[in-house]
């Protein structure tokens, strides 16, 4: 694995240049970030600050706050639903994370020189990503149907008696994760496709001259040079995994329609339930802050880890 | 008249401004003194000019509503009404956002479970004025239903439409199973017997006897009322009583006997889907289900029956009301539209448009005529013994406990009495917070 | 292994041997199986949009409609002001995508390649907005738009969507992956940072900008809750919100909803097909190093 961790020798001068370039850029960076940071501060950061405050209050349905200190957090941490929802969210996140390795394989296969129909494949893999989530969910519900669904029909060929996917605790979150995985692959293929285009073709030519097999080229050139994109996708997948809500709602239905939703709840669903259904807005704010801290921790860990394996020129 | 009117508008505007400032000062906790505003209603003159927004959640009713508004504009050509459709799934999120910012539509749809939240939050202008002025007479609408829209003795609106629950029957399946179609005076036992008989006879076809949506409104609230129990009474849960337990046991027995698909099957494929696919003999459903049947192959073999009788006869009644926002800048015009939409003339037209049953007593004939052989009259006759949908100030809080806990009782994985004890204590805690 | 990655830079450029090879068969096999899985729900959606509601609702799935119901598509146009909503969707999407590209490339460049005090803190703050449930922003953003007097306007509808933390992160990643020689050379030639950004670095990340364009287009095109909450008239709604109004509480006409969603998806899909050569193969000609 040495080639993964140590940058190619050819890039060595760049590193020294970068070291030399460790300088301050004066006011320029601030000019560059100002428009974005301004908008973000007004429309996004300020709401987060407000939410942090609301999490310490009992918040009326239509406004009006009473300071209650850490009460919301105390109630929340005593509630088993929180841990269950974190568990479900982790299951979802881990399963959907597999979109990245799948997409690496698909994207590099699509990048095979002279592959006919690559453009068609790209469109087909991209379809799930463009499709409207509500429409997609309707179709998946039919596929997952325990009595009449295609999935259990196909499983039957192999002698497997499939469960009632969307109404069995445990199976339901897996069903939702499968849809999530399915819809993410297209996006990752696109991102990795762009990353692959940045790999100079000479690398492969040289490898071929050296008699390296395709598999070897994949392991020693493609994967290492894709690591920045892979790292990006992993971080984004984890962040999105923690935000999962719409899909659960669309595939499983509301709590009224499907009692399994309570067992399959994601942490953002818990937030939504408190904030918009049962009208405990202070509690909802506290859940939002817990989500923020969890995702921030996960992201920091990933950033730390990626220094070890991401190949940066 | 015109000058007087405009002076009042200015006053109202000034008052509104004052309200906004106070609101801002005390962090959005608004009290607009709406009672006085509502009480001062007089019928507007025909040349009143105003722009109203009317918030609704059902796209299929828009054509009928537009007809009502066109007729209203014959009388008030200066009042422009824009219909704003938001799907039900997002309607309440949007309404809450608007209420929190005092930007509610002038007139908007409300349902029973959410009403007390908004009325208690002073977001709605009562109809005290229009009633006093004779523009609305609550006596024209089913009493059980108007009671849903009053809080602490103040009436905030009257229903514009209504629905009750009955049993939809596929006579073709009864014929095939060689089971006699029940009659209107049937009992719980008759229902259970017919359900198991059909399931047994047609097992090889995958056809079941009877089922419901397993939500309160169309199934267990009804059987609880029929057993003489209650869901919520005097700020307390009514679940942990022998009567209510009997109402829940009805469904547990039905599923245990095989007369109904299991809970998991009913989640994957909803009861109405089982029914419309011709795989269910009897379906507990609302009068609104008519729309799903009209024009299908199934229509010819449909028969509607009142709910089978338990210790007593009952059904759940519910309906949507049009309410005027407390923050509306055009309250007079909004109340005028509100009053018109529930007038006999408008209700008659609404009924003829066919998507819902109007609430005004005596305007509902069009509904029964829409499927003349199905005996839809039972849904109207049910008004007599109907009970309002159980609600409280924060209905959704305990609804969540029902949907979370009750399935265990229905599936038989826990005894009904254990579940009701648990449910009642959690529900009481939620109710105590109101 | 290290040997492999060291030689290339000096190897003369030469086209890789093109054309089918023996193991392309396996590649096709793998890709086709995957493609079937990927497109199956979509194809089914098309078939269901051409069925009757009874067929869609039927518990034994009908794969093929008994009679093709083209009328479902006509019904969409009858129920929705489709062209008005299409226009709104196009306008807000174009403005947001351009805005996101402008703001995100600038900020992403600064975060990736410049040095300033508090950089990581600011970046962390920007990224943190991805980390809370998006519904958190609904009420505060609504109130800001209201206070700005922009409720019911197109500006109010599109304003918060001009700023994307995701896009900034994507652009930062793209800039990070670039070699620094060119940048340094330009600097030594006396170009100011903006000139370096604009003339040297920005062209190099064209493929990633395309990715941002695709993702922000799709996000803007499919966004649901915000447009539903800030618009009142169906004429002012984008398509995503408009077609959600077809999903009724109790009696949903599924074929109509599916037909409408296919109609709404079609423009972005066509855009992607048309652009994909430029988009995906964009860099092939723009010359690395």
Please provide a written account of the structure:
The complex is a heterotrimer of chains A (about 325), B (about 425) and C (about 290). Chain A is built from 16 helices and two strands. Chain A is mostly helical. Chain A has one domain: MetI-like (MetI-like fold, Orthogonal Bundle). Chain A has a two-stranded antiparallel sheet with strand order 1-2. Chain A is globular. With about 425 residues, chain B is α/β, with parallel strands linked by helices. Chain B is about 45% helix and about 15% strand. Chain B contains 20 helices and 17 strands. In chain B, the strands form six sheets. Chain B has a five-stranded mixed beta sheet with strand order 2-1-3-15-4. In chain B, helix 3 links the parallel strand 1 and strand 2. The N terminus of chain B is likely disordered. Chain C is an all-alpha fold. Chain C has a domain of about 170 residues: MetI-like fold. The chains are: A mainly alpha (about 325), B alpha/beta (about 425), C mainly alpha (about 290). Chains in contact: A-B, A-C, B-C. Chains A and C meet through helix 2, helix 3, helix 6, helix 7 and helix 8 of A and helix 1, helix 2, helix 5, helix 6 and helix 7 of C.
Features:
A: 313 residues; mainly alpha; two-stranded antiparallel ribbon; B: alpha/beta; D-Maltodextrin-Binding Protein, domain 2; 2 domains; four-stranded mixed beta sheet; 20 helices; 15% strand; disordered N terminus
């Amino acid at each position: 694995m040495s080639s993964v961790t140590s940058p190619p020798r050819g890039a060595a001068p760049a590193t020294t240049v970068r070291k030399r370039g460790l300088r301050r850029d004066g006011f320029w960076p601030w000019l560059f970030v100002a428009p974005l940071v301004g908008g973000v501060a007004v429309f996004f950061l300020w709401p987060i600050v407000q939410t942090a405050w609301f999490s310490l209050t009992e918040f009326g349905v239509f406004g009006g706050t009473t300071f209650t200190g850490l009460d919301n957090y105390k109630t929340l941490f005593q509630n088993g639903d929180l841990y269950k929802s974190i568990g479900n969210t982790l299951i979802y996140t881990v399963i959907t994370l597999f979109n990245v390795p799948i997409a690496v394989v698909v994207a590099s296969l699509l990048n095979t020189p002279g592959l006919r129909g690559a453009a068609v494949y790209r469109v087909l893999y991209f379809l799930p990503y463009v499709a409207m989530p509500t429409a997609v969910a309707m179709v998946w519900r039919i596929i997952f149907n325990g009595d009449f669904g295609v999935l259990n029909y196909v499983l039957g060929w192999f002698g497997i008696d499939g469960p009632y996917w969307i109404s069995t605790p445990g199976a339901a979150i897996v069903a939702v994760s499968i849809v999530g995985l399915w819809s993410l692959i297209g996006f990752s293929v696109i991102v990795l496709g762009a990353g692959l285009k940045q790999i100079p073709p000479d690398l492969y030519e040289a490898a071929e001259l050296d008699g390296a097999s395709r598999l070897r080229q994949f392991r020693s050139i493609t994967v290492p040079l894709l690591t920045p994109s892979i790292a990006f996708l992993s971080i984004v997948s984890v962040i999105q995994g923690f935000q999962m809500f719409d899909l659960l709602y669309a595939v499983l239905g509301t709590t009224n329609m499907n009692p399994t939703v309570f067992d399959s709840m994601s942490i953002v669903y818990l937030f939504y339930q408190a904030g918009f259904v049962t009208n405990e807005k202070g509690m909802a704010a506290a859940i939002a802050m817990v989500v923020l801290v969890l995702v921030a921790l996960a992201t920091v860990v990933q950033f730390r880890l990626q220094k070890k394996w991401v190949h940066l020129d | 008249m015109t000058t007087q009117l405009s002076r009042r508008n200015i006053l109202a505007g000034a008052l509104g401004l004052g309200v906004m400032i106070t609101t801002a000062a005390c962090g959005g906790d608004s009290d607009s003194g709406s009672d006085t505003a509502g009480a001062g209603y007089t019928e507007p003159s025909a040349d009143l000019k105003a722009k109203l927004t009317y918030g609704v959640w059902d796209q299929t009713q828009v054509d009928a509503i537009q007809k009502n508004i066109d007729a209203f504009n014959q009388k008030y050509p200066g009042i422009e009404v824009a219909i704003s459709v938001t799907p039900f799934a997002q309607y309440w999120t949007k309404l809450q956002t608007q209420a929190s910012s005092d930007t509610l539509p002038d007139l908007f749809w409300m349902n029973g479970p959410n009403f007390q939240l908004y009325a208690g939050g002073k977001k709605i202008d009562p109809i005290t004025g229009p009633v006093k002025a004779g523009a609305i007479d609550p006596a024209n609408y089913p009493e059980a239903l108007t009671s849903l829209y009053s809080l602490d003795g103040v009436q905030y609106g009257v229903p514009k439409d209504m629905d009750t629950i009955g049993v939809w029957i596929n006579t073709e399946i009864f014929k095939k199973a060689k089971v006699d179609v029940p009659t209107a005076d049937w009992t719980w036992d008759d229902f259970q017997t017919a359900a198991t008989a059909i399931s047994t006879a047609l097992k090889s076809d995958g056809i079941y006897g009877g089922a419901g949506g397993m939500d309160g409104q169309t199934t267990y609230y009804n059987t609880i009322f029929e057993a003489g129990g209650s869901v919520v009474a005097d700020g307390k849960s009514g679940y942990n009583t022998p009567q209510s337990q009997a109402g829940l046991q009805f469904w547990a027995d039905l599923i245990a006997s095989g007369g109904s698909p299991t809970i998991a099957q009913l989640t994957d494929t909803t009861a109405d889907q089982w029914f419309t696919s011709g795989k269910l003999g009897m379906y507990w459903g609302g009068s609104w289900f008519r729309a799903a049947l009209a024009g299908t192959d199934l229509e010819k073999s449909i028969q509607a029956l009142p709910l089978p009788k338990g210790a007593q006869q009952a059904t759940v009644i519910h309906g949507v009301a049009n309410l005027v926002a407390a923050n509306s800048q055009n309250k007079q015009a909004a109340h005028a539209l509100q009053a018109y939409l529930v007038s006999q003339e408008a209700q008659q037209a609404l009924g003829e448009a066919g998507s819902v049953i109007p609430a005004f007593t005596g305007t509902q004939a069009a509904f029964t005529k829409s499927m003349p052989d199905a005996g839809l009259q039972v849904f109207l006759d049910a008004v007599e013994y109907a009970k309002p949908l159980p609600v409280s100030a924060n209905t959704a809080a305990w609804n969540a406990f029902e949907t979370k806990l009750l399935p265990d009782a229905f599936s038989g994985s826990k005894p009904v009495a254990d579940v009701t004890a648990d449910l009642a204590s959690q529900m009481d805690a939620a109710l105590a917070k109101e | 292994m290290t040997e492999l990655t060291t030689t290339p830079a000096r190897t003369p450029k030469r086209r890789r041997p093109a054309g089918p090879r023996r193991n392309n068969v396996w590649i096709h096999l793998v890709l086709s199986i995957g493609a079937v899985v990927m497109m199956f729900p979509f194809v089914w959606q098309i078939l269901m949009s051409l069925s009757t509601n009874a067929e869609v609702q039927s518990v034994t799935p009908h794969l093929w409609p008994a009679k093709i119901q083209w009328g479902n598509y006509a019904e969409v146009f009858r129920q929705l002001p489709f062209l008005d909503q299409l226009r709104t969707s196009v306008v807000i999407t174009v403005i947001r995508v351009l805005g996101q590209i402008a703001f995100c490339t600038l900020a992403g460049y600064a975060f990736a390649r410049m040095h300033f005090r508090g950089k990581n803190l600011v970046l962390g703050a920007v990224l943190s907005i991805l980390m809370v449930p998006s519904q958190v922003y609904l009420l505060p953003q609504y109130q800001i738009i209201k206070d700005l007097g922009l409720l019911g306007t197109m500006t109010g509808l599109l304003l918060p969507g001009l700023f994307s933390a995701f896009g900034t992160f994507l652009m930062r990643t793209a800039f990070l992956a670039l070699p620094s020689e060119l940048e340094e050379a330009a600097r030594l030639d006396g170009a100011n940072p903006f000139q370096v950004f604009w003339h040297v670095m920005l062209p190099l990340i064209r493929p990633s900008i395309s990715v941002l364009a695709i993702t922000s287009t799709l996000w803007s095109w499919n966004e649901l809750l915000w447009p539903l909450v800030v618009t009142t008239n169906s004429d002012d709604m984008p398509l995503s919100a408009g077609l959600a109004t077809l999903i009724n509480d109790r009696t949903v006409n599924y074929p109509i909803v599916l037909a409408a969603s296919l109609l709404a998806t079609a423009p972005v899909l066509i855009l992607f097909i048309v652009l994909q050569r430029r988009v995906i193969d964009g860099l092939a000609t723009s010359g690395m190093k």
